[in-house]
Amino acid sequence: MTSESSPYQSKISLTPSDSTQLQVVAKAILDANLDRYQLFSDVDNGRVDPNTWKLVKSKNEMRAYLQRQRRRVSFPFQVNPGEDNCALQSLLCVGSSPGTLDSVMREVRNPRAGDISRAALLATVSKPTTSDPFESITVKWMDLDVRFQSMGLVKNHDYVYVEATGVLHLPRGGRLGYQLLHSVDVPGAFELPGLVRSKLSVCSFFRQIKANSVSVYALGMMDSMSDRARRAVVPRFIKLMLPTTQCRGDAMRLTLASAKRYTSMNLAPQRLGDSCVICSKRVLRLGKLLNRHSSCSVCSGCVCSSCKVEKNVRLVSSDMKVTRRRLVFCSPSPCLGNAMAQNDPELSLRDNAGGVARFYRADYNSVSSRLTASGPVSSSMLCWSEPKHQRQAAPHVSNGSHRHKSRTLLVDRPSSSPAPPPLYPPVMLRRLALRSVQTTLRNARGLASASGLWKNPRSSKFSMTKIVGTIGPVSEQLDMLQKLTNEGLRIMRINFSHAEYDEALLRVNNLRACRGVHAEGQAKFNLRAVLHDTKGPEIRTGKMLDGKKIRLEKGKSVVLTTDPAFEVQGTADKFYVTYQQLAETVKVGDTVLLSDGLIRLTCTAVGKGEITCEVENTEEIGNRKGVNLPGLIVELPALSEKDKRDLDWGVEHDIDFIAASFIRKASDVHEIRAFVAECIKKHWAHEPKYIAPKIISKVENLEGVQNFEEILEASDGIMCARGDLGVEVPAQKVLTYQKMMVDRCNAVGKPVIVATQMLESMQNNPRPTRAEVSDVGNAVLDGADCVMLSGESAQGKYPIESVATMNTVIKEADELLLHPTYRAKFQFDPPTSDVESAVSSAVKTANEMNAQLMIVLTATGYTARKVAKYKPTVPVMCFTTNLKVGRQLQIHRGLYPVVPDYLERRPTTAEAIAHAKKMGWLSSGDRVVVISGDKLSDDLGREIVMGVADVQ
Q1: For domain 545-628, which architecture applies?
Q2: Among the listed residues 332, 313, 314, the one whose alpha carbon sits nearest the alpha carbon of residue 323
Q3: Domain 466-536+637-823, CATH homologous superfamily name and number
Q4: Fold observed for domain 16-78+87-241
Q5: Positions marked catalytic
Q6: What family does the Swiss-Prot or TrEMBL record give for this protein (predicted)?
Q7: What are the start-end ranges of the H helices in 39-113?
Q8: Over 90: is that where the pLDDT of 941 sits?
Q9: According to the model, what pLDDT value does residue 577 have?
Q10: 395-409: buried (b, 16+ CB within 10 Å) or exposed (e) per residue?
Q11: Is the peptide bond preceding residue 332 cis, with omega within 30 degrees of 0?
């Protein structure tokens, strides 16, 4: 008999607060893994993607998969904030295991003893109850015995982890068992000499699928350290995840029955008589000497060699030593049958019940017997109850000599010797435990996004969806703009409804003085774009008498007139409106909205140059407030005189985009494009190849929605301006129109911006509402190229926090878009050219080959925009020699333009890869898809070259 003591001689006392936080940690991780399990079982139908997972081991009906190297995840497992994230080895085990859910839940909660050198129970958070006999949360330690350790090539790895088990009742019926092992920091669980403290996270789910079959799904991650250690540790980790249950249940029941018999007798087992209790055969002295007879471990009766059944098991005694012994049972007799008849929930409760002998998650395997086949050895924990005369020793598992064949059972009586003193003073222990649990809780919060099966290996600095931020008085200074661009601002919006020319010039110059991150040098390093938002044609009220507000009372009548005599003489009975065709447009029964929809009027009469309306709600109205005529066709020019002056200024200062307000039909876009062309001739005649600003049409009324297809065809992009649109149409229709606009833009490959009140509460609060976070995330999941901030970044108290918050939400939603479930919703129009066909094939190749990056070499940006249409799952680095082209590519999802300073020509493929590697976007071993496209001539068209390269 051999044994080895645990290095942890006392349990750690957790405060109620610490225990609660550990429960929160376990629940957060379980919820995240449960979502993945449901996607795997319901959406993927239990199929494992061979492009992501490599089959490395199978046993019976179980299969173990190793995540391929290029898809390996980065997991925020660091204990100290200054530590770097470590790449984890991810494994997936799926299949089925024989038995019932109760038996599997009872038997799989401990690691296999053949792989574990030592183990210890450090703390108990919760125990099983009668209503849930399998529920428990504990903190444990184990020493994983790895290959080549005895040769000195590697060291054993040990783990401190929280273990949670239980059974969930599913909404659609049935039960789902779970087991979680997740690394935590626990004060007192000091690092041991000769061992490497590693990290793991394993979550397994079990579900009854047939009468004697349980489906198994286990996703695990571990810190495999160096390559040499990985080759030694990963095989043990795989065996640890593969549940082996065929031979455990019988021995477990037999050993529990034996222990119960010993403790009830309160003495060591004794042989009763010299005759076999089964066949009455007398055992001779020679048989005694040759040990050809034994005593039954349950009834203590003498049994001969022909009638006995042997079971070899291993237990942990109260003095911290692993002991092994052969169990003998008389057969056929009630001893074996009664022991085998114990049900699994009852055994699970008995594990943690008070009493003289308490088995903590016992796990036994038969090794050899005349009734069962040979099986691997497992371990169990035996500890004592808490009365003073039976002081509980620190439970643990120790298996330092698991290679030996002889195994003996020894159950010690309670020891009256006091437990060893704690390793830390109680006050220090409590502080360290709380700090450790809080660190673990922070790590757990990132599990849902960081350990998904579909997570892309790209760095977290890449956000595929772009941020458009309105710059105003609180954010126009250089230092503030620099912080905003550092947080992820890609396009600056200037609202010319409020901005003066000197303010706009200050903002443009400051933005272009901010240092960017997508190119090098001092001359061409900034690729942030400028979006010029026009005021647009509007209908407004005139001024009120003496410039004071007037109060409109519900139920009273008010006259809206176009008579200039009332332009500055408005009263509560009659005031001026700027739209001269008001009386010809509005009919009796139509609705008129004032002050962005705050005041609702209903037309009751139409006269010459005026209409009479009934006030529907009481409200005050001031000077120059907006007037909306929802559902009515309004004859307004596409550009007001102010818009023309503003656009002339914008073209002179080389703006990149024009957000055209209140676009109603395609002819409005054509009119704006023609005026911009005249401005270019006026200010850029010396630049024959000057690139005109792209026109982004803002759809803000019902007429624009009805003519959306023609507007989309005439425009370079679309902005879903939900603010004014929500005034013109019922609020619930905004959702429908937003989805329609985003889907149609995705189908044709034109950029779309979702705007207005995305993080509205952050104008006054440092944190957004949950609904606002969902709004941003859903816009990204719909396929929006950009999401926009308005007052949050222009005049709010927290502009930096607003951009940072939006960026984090974008990254989270971008990760979800890597999963086929979310990507399946994208429907693209058929390619319109051979170039587009080639580009779509390149994007598909990059997605299927798990490329780290796509590189596009483009002169005009045409090829890059076609790449963006097909929503690649990896970032696209676009190399161009034109700054204007680079800035205009910023509006497309996933495109990151680069203009190298050291080249006046387009870089070669090798130069582009070297540049990407220098900037930290690529590393050795990464795979990259390269596309180059150029227009050869008007006769020959475009040339598209695609290639795949492995970075050296």
Answers
A1: Beta Barrel (2.40)
A2: 314
A3: Phosphoenolpyruvate-binding domains (3.20.20.60)
A4: Alpha-D-Glucose-1,6-Bisphosphate; Chain A, domain 4 (3.30.530)
A5: 493, 540, 698, 756
A6: Belongs to the pyruvate kinase family.
A7: 101-107
A8: no
A9: 96
A10: bbbbbbebeeeebbb
A11: yes
